[in-house]
Design goal:
Layout: H1 17-30, H2 35-55, H3 60-72, H4 80-84, H5 88-92, H6 96-102, H7 109-117, E1 121-123, E2 126-128, H8 137-140, E3 143-145, H9 153-159, H10 162-173
Antiparallel strand pairs: 1-2, 1-3
Helix pairs in contact: 6-7
């Protein structure tokens, strides 16, 4: 069995007041579930920065390929300096949860998260249930919310076995 490695690094100081306050603001602003989501995004930003530093000495073709991949993810980068200037906000703004809110498909971040988790959101016709999914520029236009079709009277009767049980219990005791 292949062991999965952590995709984040915990902070070195567990109780650093300024960091904790910043993380709490991010959690509230972007409707995150826990601080681990913040740490994962920070790990991704750190990866992009390290990769850019390594590519600083590489050929222009390799750099362009790297920039193209980041641009497909929706990050506005054209040079190594732009990659080094990336912040956690850049990635958090590309999350599915945030884009649902920004496109006015939901009214709050928590509602967006709930709709995603309850499999009410589709991207290119495929159901997506991961709030932290980084949406590419191509996929952004295809985000949609499943519409709730109204039930007919027959469907509601068929879906409600409670009334039958009540009749059985009432009939059995009389």
């Amino acid at each position: 069995m292949i062991r999965k490695h952590k995709r984040f690094v915990r902070p070195k100081k567990a109780y650093e007041k300024t960091r904790m306050e910043d993380e709490n603001k991010l959690m509230e602003q972007y409707g995150l579930k826990n601080k681990r989501e913040i740490w994962k995004m920070l790990a991704q930003v750190t990866y992009f920065r390290r990769r850019a530093k390594a590519l600083a000495k590489a050929s222009g073709e390799e750099q362009e390929l790297f920039f193209k991949k980041l641009q497909e993810k929706g990050l506005e980068v054209n040079s190594i300096a732009d990659v080094l200037a990336l912040t956690i906000h850049s990635l958090l703004n590309r999350r599915l949860q945030t884009l649902l809110m920004r496109k006015s498909l939901t009214t709050t971040m928590r509602q967006a998260r709930q709709m995603i988790v309850h499999k009410k959101v589709t991207i290119q016709g495929n159901v997506m249930n991961v709030p932290s999914y980084i949406v590419s520029v191509v996929e952004e236009a295809t985000i949609s919310v499943k519409s709730a079709k109204p039930r007919t009277a027959q469907e509601t009767e068929a879906a409600s076995p409670v009334s039958e049980k009540v009749e059985e219990v009432a009939g059995g005791t009389a």
